[in-house]
Amino acid sequence: PQINMTILKGEKGDRGERGMQGKFGKTGMAGSRGHTGPKGQKGSVGAPGERCKSHYAAFSVGRKKPLHSNDYYQTLIFDTEFVNLYDHFNMFTGKFYCYVPGIYYFSLNVHTWNQKETYLHIMHNGAEVVILYAQVSDRSIMQSQSVMLELQEQDEVWVRLYKGERENAVFSDEYDTYITFSGHLIK
């Protein structure tokens, strides 16, 4: 036997109390972007920022004493300081120590000694980079050499007198500065 449920249905009752909230369903797809709202008011001025930090490195040193070669390589030690920004050039060791990595320009100027050879290297971390050379001559002349090097922090750059078979020397005297070595950070 089957019962027709529609005939057993009574009148609609009062609304019941609200039940507990059910579980959240899956997140739906994002809707399309709405219309752009009106422009807001101009904000207040912010606090001033820090000044742009520029890094510098520069030195220029000279030597008033002549130097002759002997049985070993000699680091050129300088006795006159023209510029030594932040003491990156050590006057005691004769070496420039890099504290600011970058591209540097170095120049070396010497006065040759007549009847003697002049043979020097600009050194970078123990490696010969460029040479300044003058053959034996009846007269002394000014010679120069320059180079750009990319340096990392803790790199060292200095000038070394080469040990040769001939007498090797650079001229100077106590009154004038004939020998100069300079360098500065380019970038």
What features would you describe in this structure?
There is one protein chain. This protein has 187 residues and is mainly beta. It has a domain at 58-185: Jelly Rolls (Sandwich). It is built from no helices and 13 strands. The strands form 3 sheets. Strands 3, 5, 6, 8, 9 and 11 form a 6-stranded antiparallel β-sheet that branches. It has a 5-stranded antiparallel β-sheet with strand order 4-1-13-7-10, with no helix packed on it. The mean pLDDT is 85. It starts with 57 loop residues before the first strand and ends with a strand.
Can you give me a brief rundown of this structure?
Helix content is 0%, strand content 37%. The chain has 187 residues and is mainly β.
Count the beta strands: 13
> What's the CATH topology name of the domain at 58-185?
Jelly Rolls
- Overall structural class, as computed from helix and strand content, comes to mainly beta
Uncertain parts = none
Helix content: under 10%
Beta-strand content: 35-45%
C-alpha geometry? rod-shaped
What is the string of SSEs from the N terminus onward? EEEEEEEEEEEEE
The number of helical segments is 0
The rounded Rg comes to: 40 Å
Domain C1q: 52-187
Pfam families: C1q, Collagen
Protein name: Complement C1q tumor necrosis factor-related protein 1
Biased composition (Basic and acidic residues): 9-20
